[in-house]
Amino acid sequence: MTKTKPSRRLDTRRAVREALGYLKRRGSQRNIKGMASYGIRARKVFGVSMAAMRELARRFGPSHELAVALWATGWHEARILAAFVDEPDRVTPAQMDRWCRDFDNWAVCDTVCFHLFDRTPHAFRRIAQWSRSREEFVKRAAFALLASRALHDKESGDEQFAKCLPLVERSATDERNFVKKGVSWGLRGVGRRSLYLHAAAVAVARRLAASQQPSARWVGKDALRDLTRPMVTRRLGPQLHRT
């Protein structure tokens, strides 16, 4: 979907050492506690702000090799950084599956989907595949990826996104908090793309809102609140008010 600028040659091992040293110096227990209060927990974490990670990513520039090496360290912030420096056109489906299985919190899941995976040509196939997973963050990734693609994709037609709506409806019964919030995010993202998709997403949301199943009902009501807001309907245009 997105072509990256050619990567410059890096000494990957040296770059990883430099990155980890930078992250260690800027990490803090206060940040770790703050992250945990928002449900961001990881086995290996420095506690570094997103702004600092973006600054480091700009310093390195795009590098697929560096991204792979950073991911392999297992550090939470190194994996966030990997999403910023990887090259979407070099990401394979196998890499996406491997990284997705490593997701252990919503922050790394959403960042990788929003800044990297949605720019690959493999996104729609992964959405369909991951939506069937029993793993919490793999399943969330399906809908974080759907929401991210809905926002950033300027080329795909409505049909590809409409095909994802049955996945939303099927997964809305998952009661896990991070999954149901991801499902709602995906539904809202699709519904904001066009008049046609707005109508289709609202129809799904209304069915879910009327469900006897608590999670599905929550997803439906959450999506309806967003998709019927004046700022959303105004952006879609005056035709919406005549449908």
Characterise this structure:
The chain is mainly alpha-helical. The chain has two domains: 10-86, no CATH class; 106-243. Helix content is 67%, strand content 0%. The radius of gyration is 19 Å and the shape is globular. The two termini are 33 Å apart.
How many beta strands in the DSSP annotation? 0
The biggest beta sheet is recorded as:
none
| Helix/strand class | mainly alpha
Q: How many domains would you count in the coordinates? A: 2
Distance between the termini: 33 Å
- What is the CA-based Rg, rounded? 19 Å
Helix and strand element order: HHHHHHHHHHHHHHH
**Morphology call:** globular
In terms of DSSP E residues, the strand content is under 5%
What's the total helix number? 15
Unreliable stretches: 239-243
Oligomer: single chain
Helix fraction?
55-70%
Mean pLDDT level: 94
How is the secondary structure organized here?
Layout: H1 12-26, H2 29-37, H3 50-60, H4 64-72, H5 76-85, H6 93-102, H7 106-115, H8 123-130, H9 136-152, H10 158-162, H11 165-171, H12 177-191, H13 195-209, H14 214-227, H15 230-236
Helix pairs in contact: 1-3, 1-4, 3-5, 4-5, 5-7, 7-9, 8-9, 9-12, 12-13, 12-14, 13-14
